[in-house]
Design a protein that fits this description.
thiamine pyrophosphate, 33% helix, THDP-binding, Rossmann fold, alpha/beta, aldehyde-lyase activity, lyase, Xul5P/Fru6P_PKetolase_C, 2 domains
């Protein structure tokens, strides 16, 4: 021990010599006191443009088509632009920003890249607001570090491959829970995921790219920390993302398709609907405020479209049936308010779903998620259609058919549970069976969906 020459370090009382003690950092230069170790101290409010100015004009439901994520890309372009000076917002992704239809951001920024480039490289510069590398682990780590040191960000990914960072998400969720219990820990910006290129629209990619299970993983975590949103169209996506980017200390998961799709709500209606997180679409239903015969519920862009198409069939062929349409944007609204801060009270839930009527629920992900979230509710007549691990390289509509979530199966599910549909219901079910057979023959011959599917539009009714 004498080889350490303790006499040069300590006085005769064993105290560290003052000149050595003075070498230790002071104030914010101490490791534990460094503001970068408590990023909330450095956090500056994100400059966010008015999302309403990016709205899609929707004169009536399904009257126009738009790419939901492409519309969002224009909004994110200006988020980057408005935060150029503080330079405190970045988009992260595993080389999918263009594929996910966010290409408009490259009108104002580049991919940060400090290595050599070749002439055919696109948007690579030593300074940029987008960080991409084909490693979900790397992107997640970058974003977590960025947030922990007081900045803001967004992780965009194919839905199936976000599962690669399941364990990293878990550790960040646990860190958020524990840090919230420490009064000296300042809040940081939320970890925001945008999951697109989702299970229902994989086109040429097929079965390997079909996995909505990140939702299942997320809802296991502490309710105070996690949020899951499934906006049905572009205006709802804008409203949801505006909320997520402004939030603190959450993990927000937003799931929405990137392909051109019929738009459903004008901006005012979308903002109101997203603020509530769940609601009855009176313009779509036929219950007119009275107790319905059946509740047609939906959550997710493709399930919502199939539900509306199913309701349009019932309006035509079963006009006496009282149908209520309920759309869910904020998935956690389905849980009781005793379990999640966004959950509905039993009274509010029953006002939407009734206490005993059959609910035909079309869901974006695995059906058991809905059963799990609603199992404490009074109404046990919940029948959920969703992804059940059936998929291949096929048409968009065929994906829903393979999983029994298409408009025809949804109507048949309703008929099976409502004996009052009588002979009309029996005949309609026969016709729908023929439609499914026609569908199979048509896509086998032409490789695309039938015109009546591709060109379907909601009957022209005034939007309320």
């Amino acid at each position: 021990m004498r080889s350490y020459k303790p006499e040069e370090l300590f006085d005769e009382h064993g105290r560290l010599l003052p000149e050595l003690a003075d070498l230790a950092p002071k104030g914010d230069r101490r490791m534990g006191a460094n503001p970068h170790a408590n990023g909330g101290r450095l956090l500056r409010e994100l400059n966010v443009p008015d999302y309403r100015t990016y709205a899609v004009n929707v004169p009536s439901p399904t009257a126009v088509d738009a790419g939901n994520v492409h519309v969002l890309g224009r909004f994110l372009r200006d988020v980057i632009k408005l935060n150029t000076d503080p330079r405190n917002f970045r988009i992260f992704g595993p080389d999918e920003t263009v594929s996910n239809r966010l290409e408009d951001v490259f009108k104002v920024t580049n991919r940060q890249w400090e290595a050599e480039t070749v002439p055919n490289d696109e948007f690579l510069m030593p300074s940029g607001g987008v960080m991409e590398v084909l490693s979900e682990h790397q992107c997640e780590g970058w974003l977590e570090g960025y947030l922990l040191t007081g900045r803001h960000g967004l992780f965009n990914s194919y839905e199936a491959f976000i599962r690669i960072v399941d364990s990293m998400f878990t550790q960040h969720a646990k860190w958020l829970k524990m840090s919230a219990e420490l009064p000296w820990r300042q809040k940081i910006a939320s970890l925001n995921y945008l999951l697109t290129s989702h299970v229902w629209r994989q086109d040429h990619n097929g079965f390997t790219h079909q996995d909505p299970g990140f939702i299942d993983h997320v809802i296991n975590k502490k309710a105070a920390m996690v949020r899951v949103y499934l906006p049905p169209d572009a205006n709802c996506l804008l409203s949801v993302m505006d909320h997520c980017l402004r939030s603190l200390n959450y993990i927000n998961v937003v799931v929405c398709g990137k392909h051109e799709a019929p738009q459903l709500l004008g901006m005012d209606a979308a903002a109101d609907h997203c603020a509530k997180g769940i609601g009855v679409w009176e313009w779509a239903g036929t219950d007119e405020g009275v107790e319905p015969d059946v509740v047609m519920a939906c959550c997710g862009d493709v399930p919502t479209l199939e539900t509306l198409a199913a309701v349009s069939i019932m309006r035509e062929h079963l006009p006496d049936l009282k149908v209520r349409v309920v759309n869910v944007v904020d998935l956690m609204r389905l849980e009781p308010d005793t379990e999640h801060p966004h959950g509905l009270s039993d009274a509010a839930y029953d006002a939407l779903f009734t206490k005993d009527k059959h609910v035909i629920f079309a869901f974006h992900g695995y059906p058991w998620v809905i059963h799990r979230l609603t199992y404490r509710r009074a109404n046990r007549n919940m029948h959920v259609r969703g992804y059940k691990e059936e998929g291949t390289i096929t048409t968009a509509f065929d994906m829903t058919v393979l999983n029994d979530m298409d408009r025809f199966h949804l109507v048949m599910d309703t008929i099976d549970r409502l004996p009052q549909t009588g002979t009309k219901g029996i005949e309609l079910k026969r016709l729908l069976g023929e439609k499914l057979a026609q569908h199979r023959l048509y896509i086998d011959e032409h490789g695309i969906d039938m015109p009546e599917i591709r060109d379907w539009r909601w009957p022209l009714l005034p939007q309320r």
